[in-house]
Every structure is written in structure tokens, then in C-alpha cells.
Amino acid sequence: RAGKFDMTTTDILCALSIATMFLWAASQAAFFKLVFFAPDVRSGEVWRIITWPIAEPPDFFALLGVVFFWVFGQQLEGLFGRNRFLLWVLATAIIPAVSLTLLGIINNEFDFSSADLGLGTLFLCGIWVYAATYPGVKWFEVVPLWALAGIFTLLRLLQFTGSRAGGAVLFLLIAVAGSLVAGRSLGLATGWPIPHIDLSSVGSGSGS
Question: Per-residue DSSP letters for 31-88?
């Protein structure tokens, strides 16, 4: 809680993302300490594996991504319950970051530095989980939600491929896959046959 206001995980993530835009203006060196960069994680800056989603540079599309995540995140958090949503966010952030950190030990071509992952990546992963929970849902009653998620994912993959950021391509694919497995394990994404460990009872107390 913040005073009289009941803050959700979605509220906190969005507020922190807006704060990092001001941090970018005040000190870009401090801002880039939040961005995922595998060599620095391997050097001991392990906080980067959970801070990368809130690292948002101050531009219009980053702000739009924060707004979209805030609107959609409230719905997804309502479906998960607060505790399980927090676990899902942590899993979605940590799984790809740890994976790329370890793969970089084998081949440093997987290493990349990017400030444009941010909440937009969590938003995209959330769309996949929602689509896997309600496969029949259509955007404006026309486009299936899974198709919309696929289009958004393809655009991001093309962007990373054009930048020759092979590590970022793999990061995004692992993030989506990890978010679906985590979502299914925590009780959502039941519309598709997704491998999972049943954790649906975790965090199902008063916070759900």
C-alpha cells in the first residue's frame, strides 16, 4: 500500500518504468546498470536479471508500452491473483535472462545489450498467456488474439534480426516460452497443451 492507495504489482512496475525515464535523463550510466547485459551479470551484477523489464528510455513508444502494460496487466493480474502474478512476472524476467547469461559462457555471440526490451516484452508475453487461456478470444471480434500475439512477436524478431542481434532473438523466444510454461504452471494458459509443473496452489491465499 502507498498511503490510502492499494498498489498492485502492475502499478509498481509501471511507476518504476516511468521513474527510469527520469533516471535516463539524470544519469545514463545509472540507467544502463538496470539493462540486461550478460557479461556484466556474469561479473556479479546479478540484479540485471530482474531489473531489465523496468528499464525504459524516455520516448513515445516506450511510454505507449508502459500504458498498454498497465491496462492489460491489470486484467492479467486479476486472472492470476496478485501473488501468482508476481511469481509469473519474476519467472518471465528471470528465465530468459539466466538462459542467455549461461549461453554466453559457451558462445559470446549470444551476448547483447538492449534498452528496448522493457515492459513491452512482458506485455507481449502476457498476450500469449491470455491467448493460451482463452484461445477463442478475438481482437475486435475479428483477429484471434493468438494471431495478434504472433504478429507482434514476428515484428520484434524482424527488428532484432535486422540489427543482427541473435542473442536478443533467442531471448525473446525463451521469454515467450518461459512465460507460457510459468503461466500454465500457475493455473492459466490451460487452452493449449503446455508442459508444466502444477504450482496453481502456490500463492493462492488472501493475495489472490
Answer: HTTTS-BHHHHHTT-TTHHHHGGG---SSHHHHHHHHHHHHHHHHHHHHH-HHHHHHH
